[in-house]
Write a structure and sequence with these properties.
By secondary structure, the chain is of the alpha+beta class. It is built from three helices and six strands.
């Protein structure tokens, strides 16, 4: 197999724990450098030095993270705001693409949709899973789910489910 060109990211192999650690490190670095440079992401997820996000795992094209919801995430009725859930889908879709092949840029949004299935309140912990469905030469398709964490620390009710398509041509 030919060596990749210098500067070309190489996709990690699925199931290799050392590669999974590289993917997780890349996702965390991408979040703290690229994502936190965005004022809306910094507001919702905290600045890099005081991140509200706790990354819990990553493999090729997939990552999980948890966040405890605060008043900045709520609507006037006390539930997670729909725009916050939509922003999470946007954020997590990009991070899943970054996890796909350790790329340094994840493109621009073409389409995003979300279904709101239940709610979460201040103090609730939610788990976010972003995963790639397909990365082509021009478009990447991702799926993001947000679960409320139950009293045993496991996934409970599905709060929201979304899909995010991005233009990724290099």
């Amino acid at each position: 197999m030919a060596e990749p060109l210098p500067g070309t990211p190489t996709a990690p192999r699925v199931g290799d724990s050392s590669d999974d650690a590289k993917v997780l490190d890349h996702v965390m670095t991408y979040h703290s450098t690229r994502c936190c440079a965005s004022p809306i992401y910094a507001f919702l997820f905290g600045p890099p030095d005081a991140s509200l996000v706790r990354f819990t795992g990553a493999t090729r094209g997939r990552f999980t993270a948890r966040i405890t919801l605060s008043d900045r995430h709520m609507n006037s009725a006390g539930g997670i705001h729909g725009s916050v859930s939509a922003t999470i889908v946007d954020w997590a879709g990009g991070l899943a693409i970054a996890a796909w092949d350790l790329r340094a840029a994840t493109g621009v949004s073409v389409d995003i949709n979300i279904s709101y299935l239940s709610t979460a309140r201040i103090g609730d912990e939610v788990e976010i899973e972003g995963k790639v469905e397909r990365v082509g030469s021009n478009l990447a398709f991702t799926e993001v789910r947000i679960w409320k964490i139950n009293g045993e620390g496991a996934r409970g009710a599905l709060v929201a489910s979304g899909r995010h398509t991005k233009f990724v041509k290099r």
